[in-house]
């Protein structure tokens, strides 16, 4: 493990005023997003869409790194350039999602365990040799009457830590993403409690497995009421409780924090980040974004697979990336 190299990558990923663009939808997820706007799911359409994203003018002013799915990482653009090389050329670090998905957790109804550790060492060496600088692994934690179970949290935390350790062995910065789903009628207190046990378990496992914390990025959910809760907490409360949770449960030498949007509206996702960053001078790490839907969805809705809509869709994408960037500095005014 080359610590200097990991720290250098972390520094670039967390550079102000930028954040990360998550465009690593697996093929089934991409098919779902396309179906919602009537686009046929094909490799060519996935390439066209991803090409639209990465060729958006000035994207590199707001985005420091892009998380790719394996297909895109190894795919050529219409120009013949590989996506990964094009990103490097425009000063956006190419990253890669390396988990193979959240699967049903045996013996635990309604819970998921993320798979992908088998053969991971070899896959990471290959990605690293082809220019990837960082990786991502997503664990899914569901809130319900009697869940999450300790088994689900422990097993997912341990897998995240094993993945992170293998990444660092290959000089790749691991993004660890324990996503606590927004789905449900739980209140914000329950979300905070689950965040606490999840984060504490994750950092305990990272420590046990000797993962270098300064060379690791956390991609957490915000502490937020369930989407079906009748009295959802307001934006100020979400931002304050999220920051308090991170400060209490995350080590101060962590490389950085880059939130997922997790089904929040575009406006909510930027507003929460903006409020948190009003306090950025008091925080031990940078707090930025690693959004997929909150950056991409409005552009996808406009594009609908039509070349004539591409330029305007890129304007929409650029505008969302700019707003996220401003929110990551606490300087968003609306
Ligand atoms: C882009 O979606 C990623 C997961 O895709 P799969 O479910 O297909 O594996 C996901 O990890 C994403 O990076 C994060 O959830 C952030 O996306 P949102 O939309 O929550 O900002």
Can you offer a commentary on this structure?
With 334 residues, the protein is of the alpha/beta class. It has one domain: TIM Barrel (Alpha-Beta Barrel). The chain contains twelve helices and ten strands. Strands 1-2-3-6-7-8-9-10 form an eight-stranded parallel beta barrel, surrounded by seven helices. A two-stranded antiparallel sheet has the order 4-5. The protein is globular, with a radius of gyration of 19 Å. The termini are far apart. The model has no long low-confidence stretch (mean pLDDT 97). 2-O-methyl-1,6-di-O-phosphono-D-mannitol binds next to strand 7 and helix 11.
Which descriptors would you attach to this protein?
334 residues, alpha/beta, 8-stranded parallel beta barrel, 15% strand, binds 2-O-methyl-1,6-di-O-phosphono-D-mannitol
Topology:
Elements: H1 3-13, E1 19-23, H2 27-36, H3 43-54, E2 63-68, H4 70-73, H5 83-89, E3 93-97, E4 102-104, E5 112-114, H6 120-129, E6 134-141, H7 150-169, E7 173-180, H8 188-208, E8 217-218, H9 235-249, E9 256-259, H10 266-277, E10 287-291, H11 293-303, H12 310-327
Parallel strand pairs: 1-2, 1-10, 2-3, 3-6, 6-7, 7-8, 8-9, 9-10
Antiparallel strand pairs: 4-5
Helix pairs in contact: 7-8, 8-9, 9-10, 10-11, 10-12, 11-12
2-O-methyl-1,6-di-O-phosphono-D-mannitol is lined by residues 22, 24-26, 29, 101, 138, 177, 179, 260-262, 291-294.
Portion in beta strands: 5-15%
Question: Globular, elongated, flat, extended or rod-shaped: what is the shape?
Answer: globular
Named CATH topology: TIM Barrel
Instruction: Please give the CATH architecture.
Output: Alpha-Beta Barrel
Based on CA atoms alone, the radius of gyration comes out at 19 Å
Percent of residues in helices comes to: 40-55%
What is the succession of H and E elements? HEHHEHHEEEHEHEHEHEHEHH
Spatial gap, N to C terminus: 44 Å
Structural category is alpha/beta
CATH level-4 homologous superfamily: Aldolase class I
